[in-house]
Amino acid sequence: MRTALIILAGFILLAAAALIARQAAGERALVLACGVFIPLWLAAALVNLWFGVSRAGYGVAEEWPIALAIFLPPAVVAGYLCWKFS
C-alpha cells in the first residue's frame, strides 16, 4: 500500500509541476518542468530505497525492484510529456 501511495504522490507532483509550468510560461516551460521532475523523482526513489535498506532492514536486492516500480510510472509519463511538447 505504501508503494502505491508513493507512486500516486509522484503523479500528483508531476501534474502540479506540469500545470503550474504551463500556466506560468507555456509549453516550453512544461518541457523544462518535466525534464527537471525526472532526476528529482529518481532522487526521491533512491531516498526511499535507502530508507528501506537502512531503516526497515531490507536488502538492496529486495528494495531495488520496488525502487524501480516507484520511479518508472511517473518518469515514463514525464518523459512522454517532454517528447510530446518538445
Account of the 3D structure:
The structure is a single chain. With 86 residues, the chain is an all-alpha fold. The protein has helices spanning 2-25, 27-54, 60-85. The mean pLDDT is 94.
Strand content: under 5%
| β-strand number | 0
Ends distance: 35 Å
How large is the radius of gyration?
14 Å
Major β-sheet annotation: none
Shape: elongated
Features:
91% helix, 3 helices, mainly alpha, 86 residues
What would you say about this model in short?
This protein has helices at 2-25, 27-54, 60-85. By secondary structure, it is mainly α. The termini are far apart.
Give the SSE map.
Layout: H1 2-25, H2 27-54, H3 60-85
